[in-house]
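Hi W., the 2-acetamido-2-deoxy-beta-D-glucopyranose complex you wanted:
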Amino acid sequence: MELLSCVLLWKLVLLQSPAFILSSGPAGTAAASSSVVSESVVKWPAGTQAVLNCQSPRMVWTQDRLHDRQRVIHWDLSGVPGSQGRRLVDMYSAGEQRVYEPRDNGRLLLSPSAFQDGNFSLLIRAVEEGDEGVYTCNLHHHYCHLYESLAVRLEVTDDPLLARAYWDGEKEVMVVARGMPALMTCVNREHLWTDRHLEEAQQVVHWDRQLPGVPHDRADRLLDLYASGERRAYGPSFLRDRVAVKADAFARGDFSLRIDALEQADEGIYSCHLHHHYCGLHERRVYHLQVTEPTFEPPAPASPGNGSGHNSAPGPDPTLVSRSRGHSVINVIVPENHSHFFQQLGYVLATLLLFILLLITVVLATRHRGGCEASDKKAGKSKGKDVNMMEFAVATRDQAPYRTEDIQLDYKNNILKERAELAHSPLPAKNVDLDKEFRKEYCK
Ligand SMILES: *[C@@H]1O[C@H](CO)[C@@H](O)[C@H](O)[C@H]1NC(C)=O
Ligand SMILES: *[C@@H]1O[C@H](CO)[C@@H](O)[C@H](O)[C@H]1NC(C)=O
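Structure:
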């Protein structure tokens, strides 16, 4: 009984909630393309500002906060093959170069333009005895989660004639005469390491607009937004100046489009495309914008009541207008008659349910009393049994789901096992027990 009423109540709740209405709306069209995350019809009165939401936290561009330090080069030196290397010099793509040992200052050189030309080679001005060892050129791309490493072994000799370079099968080996410069070559000209703008172009947001009947692949581009901050506006001239996306869009992941002073000609299908090529994010949000008749103009009745007649004019409030405006932003997804119908249905079902519940409680209460009297006198036996059977039917129906659950639990512990065994015990015996217990408690 409780279960049943619970289910009915939930159905009612679902019917009333906007989420249900939303999913019952244009779900069919949304399923056609996997990249469409939402599609809805929105209506605003002419002259007002429309806001078409388009937000995704995954599109937040965080790299600029790091001052473009997402790429790092560092040169390490390890004297003995097994030992941990020590950091000699490193540099972020923002341009900061750090030399770790004071004695290496001005002795070890990295090209300041390394992240532009891809030449990460390390120059040692004058080689000393202590410079021998394995040098590693390490490139980290934090944003792309890439790491590349290149090793060069440096040997120092006293005889300039022995100076040479060769490949030992794993790495380059350089034999350099004492006091001579040594150039440890490390070049990587892949755009990933050198081109900053290409990386930012990985995150792109478009707003498109198409007139009804035009397929989305032939839509007109309204706006292009790049994570680098670059923006391009296209669109028809009458619309271009009235559309805007907030300046900090990539910082917040909020690319909602505002259209000021709506005109009838603005109607159409607007779509927001979010692309994060690196992360594989490709989402489209579609809005069918409808511009309705202009709403009640508040300035006309409000202007005489500006200062003096403030309390004398209780009529239309500007707050009322703004509230209804805000409301239209939230739910205008399904034709109104639809939701109206669901509401009506909900009310009817709710009253019906209440009535049924009331009826059942009344019937049960009266019958129990009758059953008790009958069994106490041990006269109307057959009548009493009828009632008991009914009760049992109700009781078992309630317990049925729990029993099957217990069996599925695979007897993980003994308590469950016992409970399951109890549940399996012959029904008639249980029936009698239940009845007796129930009556003892109820008729006291
Ligand atoms: C890399 O830069 C060094 C100077 O730092 C220069 O001597 C060398 O020729 C450059 N290598 C390449 C391949 O451009
Ligand atoms: C009422 O306010 C508007 C601006 O809100 C102003 O232009 C107008 O002069 C005011 N009228 C009076 C009667 O104060």
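The chain has a mean pLDDT of 71.

W.
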